[in-house]
Amino acid sequence: MPMETSPKPGMPPGTLTMLILRVLQSEALHGYAIAQRIHLLSRDILAVEEGLLYPTLQKMLLKGWVTAKWGISENNRKVRFYELTKKGREELKDALSDYHRFAQAIRDVLRTA
Amino acid sequence: MAELFRRLRYLLNRRRFDRDLENEMQFHREMSTGMGHAEFGNLLRLREQARDAWGWTWIDRLGQDLRYGVRMMARSPGFTLMAVMVLAIGIGVNVAAFSVFDMVALRPLPVPDAQRLVRLERRSPNDYGSEISYPSFEFYRDNARTLSAVMAVLGIPPMQIDDDIQGTSASFVTPNYFTQLGTQAAFGRMFDPRVDGAAGSPPVMVIGYGLWQRRFGGDPGVVGRAMYLNRKPVTVVGVAPYSLATLGGQYPDVWLPMGEQPYFFDGSGVLADFDTASVRMWGKLAPGITPQVAAQELRSLTGELRHRRPTAVWDKEFIQVSPGGHLQILQPAMFQLAEIVGVLTFLILAVACGNLGALLLARAVQREREIDIRRAVGASGARVFRQLCTESLLLATLGAVAGLVLGCAVTRIALSELDAPKWLSAVPDIRILLFTLGMSFASAVLFGFTPALQIARHGRHKMTVRQILVTAQLAGSCVLLIVAGLLVRAAHHALYTNPGFGYERLVSIDGQLKQHGYPASRAGEYLERMQSRLRTVPGVRSVSLVLLPPLGHAVSYSDAVIQGANVRVYPNWVSPGFFAAMQIPVLLGRTFTPNEEHVVVVSRSFARAQWPGQNPLGKRVGDGNVKDEVIGVVADAHVNALNDDDALEEYWRAAPDQMNGMALVARTGGTVENLATAVKSISESLDPQLFPEIRSIQSLYAANVSQIESVAGAVSLIGLVALSLAGVGIVGLVSFTVRQRTKEIAVRLALGATSNNILKVILRQFSWPAVIGLAVGTGIAAASSNILRRALYGISNLDLIAYLGAIGFLIAILAVSVVLPARRALRVNVSKALRYQ
Predict the structure, then answer these.
(1) N or C: less crowded end of chain B, CB within 10 Å?
(2) CA-nearest residue of chain B to A63?
(3) Is-above-0.95 flag for pTM?
């Protein structure tokens, strides 16, 4: 069975990782909260599918960008919290600067062409 | 690196991590349903997707596939057993053949530094000598710096222990032989290079383990015992170990130090004679020296030797250095033979795999429903393909294990039958295991790949694939059958062909006069006296001189071209009574008269080849100034080429200067044993120093025949395997294909086709595969069997009977496998067959 984990059409590849890294920058969150946070912050435009969220988180764990710790959720359930590592912060910085560079380049083209 | 460790942690703790994922997702689901969000997807599927990130999914799938494969195999044990058996035969034959090759050429001798042992032989662009003169050996030994040791072996005719009638095989070796091989005596000691063979030290000998058991009943007290060897006193100092490893795989019963040669052979100058090539030379490379470097040094030493002794060195001679730390030194001809055997055995595997592939394809039809279901629930073509390949690998693994067991069992039997050196064991080494692994993988690809691809693609071209399979199988089977047929024919031909001379009640007597320092004139007198004394022995019918006695140790021939054909001519030098003594009929003309010169007697085949349709008498042969006149033609008698039916013979009269090389043949009306006893007593009175080798030609002939018989037996067995594999495979494949068309046949019948029409249609489907397969197979066999020519005992490699037999057999099988199921199909109840599917 082919099991691609490519993002939804419309979301450029690698964006989800960047978004997750970004929302984790200020505090550790569990999976559901990550999805909610992205959803809210994008004013309901970006919906993160579970089928994409968890494989991406697993990949990030493997890369060592985040660590997972079991904790208690707001409604008193045992749940896994993801926290950014030092390596994750560096990765976020790189991803953001790459993203800004590309976005700027695209804006330049759109403005002048 | 850290990532790899993390991955491994995931692999090892898969269960725990999977549970974590499940809990986490469960939480997510509850949260989102609680908030009235969209539905969460299939949990299992999502978990699988998340797990994919760890990169270990393939292990899970392999596990699944294997479990499934095992279940499938268990469900049809008959098929599994059949498949494993077919594979076991195919792989087993290859394993056995490779084991033999491994033992002979690859497995190092169990001695220290085996990889440093080298065989040293004389070579030049035109000449090859396996032996070298002893003084030359000494020169290389004393001067070569790239060799840490040089050993020599001098082979001699059997010697007489005490008053034995039967001779005992013996060899002289340089005393460093066993120290270099690190041999530890079973009892007593081996040779001591400082003492044994040196001037003034007492004569000693080491006996082989086999002789010790046979003759001395394994009595350790034999060490230190004084015995007589060729009537000379000698002391046994040791018994060679049971699993003795020797250079070149030689196992004489008695080992003697080289320095004792003149003691046992009075008057022999072999050890001082630069012009008599007598010893085999071996060396041990100095540490860190490559064979190339050693060869380089030996080349310059050869130049130096030429400077000192021009006659001792050939034009452009050099010493060839080849690896010597194995059972045998492989000559190019043996490599060629190994290649042939390798190709043939692989062909057996290929045919076996072809059969299995056909079986798998046939089963695929039964499994169509199952595979359709798997697809329906979401399996992709690639996934089905992988599953089928896993099943094939599983089968191949089982087959390989069975094949390994079978192959090793065969090797073990062969080892004990062939009286092989005891250090060899049939336990597979790493090379054999790797080979088996490779074979099982190759066979999995051969039998599993095409059907799997076909099924996974949901085969639209099943028909074509099956036709290709039939073609390939026919071609492979055809080659196998033809070659097997040729070998069987050749073996039987060799068995039942009259050798052309009377071998019963015939003995050869070789006094080794030259080795005992007899000059030609004295040898002539000795032989004359011996002959006249022999003639007075009761029962003796005839006696004659001959240079190369029948089935002797030495054979001489020359390859020539007569009337455009390559022939092998065997010359011999005899006294006038030879043809009568050997019972070779004189067909035309006469034999020699005493003191006649420049005349020659030829065999019938020689005369036919040289002067077809003409009277050979009075013709002249030879290429020197003085040509020899043909005075007689005798019947073909392959005295020195028992197995070569094409051999031609030329006989010259023995000249006085050849006398010290001559042997005798004697025919008796009584028993060979009585004659042998008489010869011994005559020899004793003529010269007590001589111990003539007396050989019964009848038993030599019987030994030769039994050797051919065992070859023929082995070949017949392989032929039988080839035959049954070919038969089973073709019948299975073709009849299955025909059965598959039952519905079509029913439709045709319903529409009014006659049985003949239908049979024709079905036959036509296989006519092209049959024609192409047989043509290709015959072509390959004809082209490659050329190499077998010499092994075929005079059968042509294009022998019509073998070819027609193989082709006829295959066509018959094909016909039976088409017609029988077709007839059954024709007899079906049309409406039933149509309703059934």
Answers:
(1) N
(2) B3
(3) no
